Structures are given as structure tokens and as C-alpha cells.
Amino acid sequence: MKEFSDQIKIVFDCNREGIPGTLNVCLTHIRNKAGSSRADDALLAKIKWVIMELLTNAVKHSGERQSVLKIGVSPKMVVLKKEDYGTPLMLVGQDKKKIMWPLEKLVRPMGFPIYHNGMDSLCVRTDESGKATFFIEALAEMEMPALLSDTSEHFGLLIMTKASDEFAYEHDPDTGLNSFICTFNLIE
Amino acid sequence: MILKVEEINRVVQATILPEEASLSNADLFKEEMITILGQGVRLVIVSFENVNYIDSSFLGSLVVALKYAMPRNVDIYLVSLKPDVKNLLTLIRMDKVFRIFDSFEAAMGTLA
Q1: N- to C-terminal Cα distance for chain B?
Q2: Does residue B56 sit within a domain?
Q3: A–B: how many Cβ contacts below 8 A?
Q4: Rounded to a whole number, what is the distance in Å from the CA of A15 to chain B's nearest CA?
Q5: What confidence tens digit (pLDDT) does each residue in A26-65 have?
Q6: What whole-number distance in Å separates Cα of residue A161 and Cα of residue A138?
């Protein structure tokens, strides 16, 4: 986030009671910086969902007492970055195979589907560095959505992937830093 | 207690009281829904009239409740969703598994 000289950094104490207050601080900053003309209500709603999920993820999965949320706003985009030194990401693919970071060099790059709800397949691919980018592949509609057979743990990833323009995860094996990065393109 | 419950003729109107439907109350919601669903009702109409935002944890509890209801032949309808809440449900396709109505009265209108 080098291009955001005036980004704000919010330390979040990873407790669920702190989510609404932190959410409001983040949204107020984004509204003030981006202006309503480029961040309309629909986009702000998506940003709100993603911040909620980033903070919820910090409470449920980081195993840390604190996470840091960085918010950068430029004329073209809003970038949310959640950082912590807690448990690295672990994904379970549709074949039940577990993938944990840091990834072995041998398995990079890689890609696989994680979850589908009958219409959207949530997939991940990694690059040579191990950075994971989440994306959606559309499926032909099924009669009984798989939503009912595979619940909850993937809803957060699905929301962040579908609501943002890019959603990625990075893990630095040297420092142990985990980063979830969500990018939103602003209206021209 | 997270739900305000009224029952008439095995139809339950369950109104979510907090304005945040989130990790902080998702488990309680699930427990209260499962208690209602286990009491021999035929339909539970969940009103979101007070809910300003919802997260993935609460959505997960909603799906768990539906999975508990289906083999018991109990329907769950969702009513009075604010636009942000409805849009999030639609984003992850939950509108394909729940019947959603504008109001309690509109949901009751299907029971003629």
C-alpha cells in the first residue's frame, strides 16, 4: 500500500464487542476520504460487509489478541488490509485436502476450488510467491443449492471475494505476518 | 434472548431484536431457533425489521436452522429485510434457499 501516503492504521483488539465501533471508524474515514460521488451507497455497503468479515475473521481465526486494519484511499481505489501474526490461513478444498500456509515451494503455483453454493464456485490460486487470490467461477444452477450441505465457514471468504474487486492473502514466512487484502475500485 | 416470539396456530413470528445480527449473537439465535423448530410448529417467519447489518456467522446460523427445519417439515420465511441485509443474502445466493417477503402480512398471505 505504498501509494497511500495518508492511510490510516487501526489496532483492533480481536474481541467481538469491538467490531461495531471499529466498523464505524473505518466507514467514516472512507466516506470522508473518498467522497460520496465516488463511493456510492452500494459500494459502501460492500466495503462494510468486507470490514465486518475481516474483523470477524480476526476474532474467530487469528488466535491473536490484536490485529491491524490498514485503510488506504486513492482517487481510484479503496484498499483494506488486515494484518496479524496469528495462525496462518488453512483452506480445505472440495476434495477435503487441507492446504496450509506457508506453502511448500514444490506446490506453487496452484489452484483449486474451495466451496460452491450451487451457483458460484469459490476458488483460489496462488502465484510463485505463495500469494493467494480468491475468485469466483460461475456454475450452472443446480436444483438443490449446495449451500445446504456445506455451511458457514466459507461464507466469510465468499462474501469478501464477491463484494470486492480483488481479494488476496499473503503470508510472510520470515516474519509470520498474515495479510488479507481487499481492493475496491472507485467510480470514475 | 434474541428473538421476540409470537405463535398462532403453529405459525411463529420470530422478530430478531438486536440491530446487529453477527458473531456476538449468532449462537444464541441458532439455539433459540432450534428450540422453536422442535416445538411442533409448521412455519417460522423470521422478521429482520430491526436488523441493520448481518455477518457470515449469523448467516451460517440461519442455514443451520433451515437444515434442522427441513426434515421436520417446517418452513422458514424471512421478512422485512433492509436493503443492505437483503443484498448480502442475495450475494451469496441465500435467496435461493429461503423464501423472502416484504412483510409479515405478505408471508401470511401465502397460507390461505
Answers
A1: 31
A2: yes
A3: 81
A4: 9
A5: 999 998 888 766 678 889 999 999 999 999 988 887 777 8
A6: 13
Interface contact flag, A53 B55, Cβ < 8 Å: yes
pTM equals 0.91
Task: Tell me the three cell numbers of residue A109.
Answer: 503455483
- This complex has an ipTM of 0.91
The answer, for B52 touching chain A at a CB cutoff of 8 Å, is no
pLDDT digits (tens, 9 = 90+) for A90-125: 888 777 777 888 887 666 677 888 887 778 888 999
What's B23's domain CATH number?
3.30.750.24
Q: Which amino acid is at A82?
A: K
- HSE-up of residue B97 (Cα within 13 Å, Cβ side): 26
- Looking at the structure of chain B, the number of domains it has is 1
3-state secondary structure of A135: strand
Distance separating alpha carbons of residues B8 and B17, to the nearest angstrom: 20
Query: Is residue B71 domain-resident?
Result: yes
In order, the DSSP letters of B32-52 are HHHHHHTT--SEEEEE-TT-S
Digit-coded pLDDT (tens) for B48-62: 999 998 999 999 999
Burial of residue B3 (CB within 10 Å: 0-12, 13-18, 19+) is buried
How far, in Å, CA of A121 to CA of A139, rounded? 7
Question: What is the extent of the structural domain holding B45?
Answer: 16-77+94-104
User: Is position B33 within any domain?
Assistant: yes
